[in-house]
């Protein structure tokens, strides 16, 4: 990764120069920098940090001594490292002193909602994933639209998201015990973990300390990996966020929970292409079943199907179905299109424990993509 960045240092510096803003702070005799990169650029995200005047001068001396190319490359590397590691860091014990009951309060909110509505765990897991893939895990998906300024939750891929009230309830309870302390981004990350555990899946220590973002744009939901993506598109989408092919396969296993509307897979069951009416990679029995659930005429409102037969239980059935040609989305079945991802599908299909371990590692990795600025008082609006 670093070799690639250094080879492209001129391009990186052009981006950094365009989007980095510096401010002199007399209190610490240092330069404060803030980097905000839009999603269309080579790098993406937000970072804040400080560099002392002495360090800056040393960098200038180093650049002069080593020559422009090497100096610029080193400076690029330093700023990129700062970008990847924001000024605030995540830790498992982040709220131990400021809000020791935070995790219990959130877990109770999730449990109380899930008892009344079995779709809540899948909804919260999906919500967290959609949040992290746009501007990092900053709870931007929770923000409401303002007039014509449509927020992420009103973007086409997100209109079916629900259970926002669970996060609201948790936030309300937290504000009563420790006001202004726990971020909405952390609430969502913990709620996703609790949702998996409540569904019979693994649990894990969630690193905490995320901040909430102040920007949410419906147009940016186009960055989310789509159900029609092929393996190349999936790899690109995940790699742009620092996630590997193993992360791709492991996190796709989240599809073991939940429900899908017909629109997400209809292109596979009729008018697939000029040669085939039905996607040939789909098992005929599944195609026939889905065509019955999603008729071309007189379709029931919100018609669709469970992601797998055990859609409220976190298990490895998802991978077993893919091997049978019964993956619901094109993006699910596409995991067999590459040797490395196919091998992972086979491994996870053969061992629930292997899947669970990989899923936990990838969830921690994904949920550590940060980018917020504040701790909201209300998860639906900025402070």
Automatic annotation (TrEMBL):
Annotated function: Removal of H(2)O(2), oxidation of toxic reductants, biosynthesis and degradation of lignin, suberization, auxin catabolism, response to environmental stresses such as wounding, pathogen attack and oxidative stress. These functions might be dependent on each isozyme/isoform in each plant tissue.
Record's protein name: Peroxidase
InterPro entries: Haem_peroxidase, Haem_peroxidase_sf, Peroxidase_pln, Peroxidases_heam-ligand_BS, Secretory_peroxidase
Binding-site positions, heme b: 255
Catalytic activity: 2 a phenolic donor + H2O2 = 2 a phenolic radical donor + 2 H2O
GO terms (BP aspect): hydrogen peroxide catabolic process; response to oxidative stress
Residues annotated as catalytic: 130
Transmembrane residue ranges: 65-88
Cofactors required: heme b; Ca(2+)
Family, per entry: Belongs to the peroxidase family. Ascorbate peroxidase subfamily.
Subcellular location field: Secreted
EC number(s) given by UniProt: 1.11.1.7
Binding site for Ca(2+) 1: 131, 136, 138, 140, 152
